[in-house]
Amino acid sequence: GSGCETFGLAVAEALCCGAPLIVPSAGGARDFALPEYAEVYPLGDAYGAADAIKRLLSRDREALSQAALQAAQSRIGTADAHFDRLFSLYETLVRQRRSLGT
Predict the structure, then answer these.
(1) Contact between 15 and 21 (Cβ < 8 Å)
(2) Which pLDDT tens digit goes with each residue over 8-17?
(3) What does the alpha-carbon distance between residue 49 and residue 55 come to, in Å, rounded to a whole number?
(4) CA 71 to chain centre
(5) pLDDT tens digits for range 41-83
(6) What's the CA gap between 61 and 30, in Å, rounded?
(7) Is residue 47 classed as helix, strand or coil in its secondary structure?
(8) Which is nearest to 30 in space by CA: 54, 55, 3, 49?
(9) What is the DSSP string of 20-84?
(10) Three-state SS at 20
(11) pTM
(12) Given CA atoms 72, 78, 79, 84 in this order, what sign does their dihedral have?
C-alpha cells in the first residue's frame, strides 16, 4: 500500500483471499487494517515494516485468515456494492464541501 493510495484494491483483494495485511499508517490501505487481521507500520519506515512482518508472523495464521475473510465479507462485499458505497461517500463529501463554500 501507498500513503497516497485512496482505496487499496490490492488490499481488498488480499482480504477476499483470506490474507492478513501489513500496511503503512497512511493511505487507503490503512482504512482496511483492523488489529484482528492486520499489522500497521509508520509510513516510509522500512524497519517498522520489517517489525510489522515479524509481528504478523508470530500470530496464529488460521485466526488471521478467518478474521480477514470475515472482514472481506462485512467491509467489502461485492465490488459493485463497495464502489456504490465509495461513490456515495464521495458525493456526501462534495456536498459538505460545497455547503461550506470551499
Answers:
(1) yes
(2) 778 888 999 9
(3) 10
(4) 10
(5) 999 999 999 999 999 999 999 999 999 999 998 888 777 887 8
(6) 20
(7) helix
(8) 3
(9) -EEEESSSHHHHH--TTTEEEE-TT-HHHHHHHHHHHHTS-HHHHHHHHHHHIIIII-SHHHHHH
(10) coil
(11) 0.73
(12) negative
